[in-house]
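In practice, a research group might receive sequence data for several interacting partners and want a quick structural hypothesis before committing to experiments. The following worked case mirrors that situation: the sequences arrive first, and a predicted assembly follows.
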Amino acid sequence: MSASPDFREPEKYALDRPAVVRRLYHVLIGLCVLLGLADIADMLWHVYHKHGYFDVEYLPNFYGFFGLLGCIVLVQLSKLLRKAVMRDEDYYDDDVD
Amino acid sequence: MMWTDLPPGLILLLGGVLAAVLPHHGRKALMLVLPFVGFWQLIDVPNGDHAVVSLFGAELVGSRIDSLSLVWGYIFYIAALIAGIFHLHVRDRMQDVAALTYMGSAVGAVFAGDLISLFIYWELTAVTSVFLIFANRTNAGFRAGIRYLIVQIASGVLLLGGLILHWRGTGSVEFGNIGIDAPGGLLIFLGFGIKAAFPLLHNWLQDSYPQATVTGTVILSAFTTKMAIYTLARGFPGQEELIWIGVVMTAFPIFYALVENDLRKVLAYSLNNQLGFMVIGIGIGTELALNGAAAQAFSHILYKGLLFMTMGAVLYRVGTVKATELGGLYKSMPMTAGFCIVGAASMAFPLFSGFVSKSLIISAAAGEGMWFVWAMLLFASVGVFVTTGIKIPYFAFFAWPKQTQKTCNEAPFNMLLAMGVSAALCIGIGLFPGYLYDILPYQTDYEPYTGSHIVTQMQLLLFSGLGVAWLMRTGLYPAEMRSTLLDSDWIFRRALHRVWRATVEWGTETSGALTGGMRGWVNTVIGVAGRLGGPGGLVSQTSKPGTGVFWLTAMLGLYLLVFGL
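A structural hypothesis for the assembly, expressed as tokens:
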């Protein structure tokens, strides 16, 4: 089904260059800063009329911090889960053909 | 009239029977044409109960067309058509027949107006769909298929038991709002719960879907679980237990999804999480929440199907979907990579379908003041974005491959076309949510595109994306590993297995002791008799007749003593 695996020229694609990936990372940080600032702007001048159901939602960048923290908590807990439930790939030996 | 009274499921079901004898091109034609025929019937036939038959005092409704069943009917036919296109290159009668009869049974179940018809279709989905797993023709697939079948049939047995109790208790087999407290209600609830992949009843899903064929998994992902969501919405709307069941369902699968290596299994876990959103919506039970569950089912079938198709294409071309062995595939399969990103974005981003459907449920929870449920839904949204939205495209198409970079051809044209249709629908729903909202069970004036909603959602997503990027750059993100993760299938694959083996061992020892003991007794008897009756033995000695008479009398006396008293 697949062609024979081989190596490609490392520089042929932009995403293969670490500098490009680093720049993308910085763009992402920039976007996040802008989104955080949008909340402060909204508190001062009501730019986009934030409305929520709970008081915490009106904290500046509540959703951003929730996302960031949630992500880190998720990853750390998953590592713990892995310690508890991870076994060898052929643990269920009856799955081997 | 025949057309009006034709139960909708029969169109695909009979097509499946026909496919058993038709040649390849005839089967493919059926798979492409019949979804249109079925869709046309749903548009053409007026709402209401059709094909009503009285049988042994029970009123059977073969075709109940109303605003709830229609949502599922429409999306099932759309999914059937997309699956047909995706499946076009496969020459396998077994899969064609299984796919058509399975999809027909699922449509039939959705339009069944009574519990008896529902039960028949319910079991049919189990016995037809298992062949999509068997069709992989591997040992592991066969074993997973058998496990899948046992669980699915168990669900049907629960439904049957509940149906009989319900019939006896209420005198009716109508499939309406049942509730757990009704006669047989709990059994029916659990029967539905198995197919809806409730926590601890869920693992058949992650166990079997990754073992099905390339197209089999795409088809499986659309029907069984969403049919169960429909039956919950019909039978148990506003059942409060569902909220808590749903909260657990949205939370625990994402931890598994993050560290699972098989990308089709990752999708199965995230499917489980998405079902949780729908279950919560049904549990809340307000008009907004039920609309949300229906809308979420609709858009979820499209984008999850799309993601399964992209992974199917990778499996077809590369031969594996293990994250440890993939990476950099965007160079070889750029279109598939693009569709995968659309599918991933459709789970949450503005302008895509998930954004306009999932928010109905989150708003419903917040509107009812359920802060904990709301917070868990936000966490689950973050989780599914991290574990599916980022992980699937990244590890399949972008991550630097660990050993050798695989090169292969782009997916076949029909696969790309099916993915394209799905992607277009995902974006179409995101851009024009009004069309989706119009077919929902209840009128709604919900507006997803407010400045507040867009900004907060983008904050949630981009910051969690930033979290992943930061964890990866610092090396804190767990590397993918070739592994097996234990889940509740361990209970019946290992724990029960061990109990059984221990029982057998114990039994062998015990019975060994018993047979050994018996043999000892028998040997003793033979030995004693031999010594008594053998040469020179007490009994065989020649002696006077008086002695013989004495022994005879003694024996008779003993006989009388033992049996006479």
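Before designing any experiment, note the following. Residues 362 and 378 of chain B are 8 Å apart (CA to CA). Chain B touches chain A through 70 residues (CB under 8 Å).
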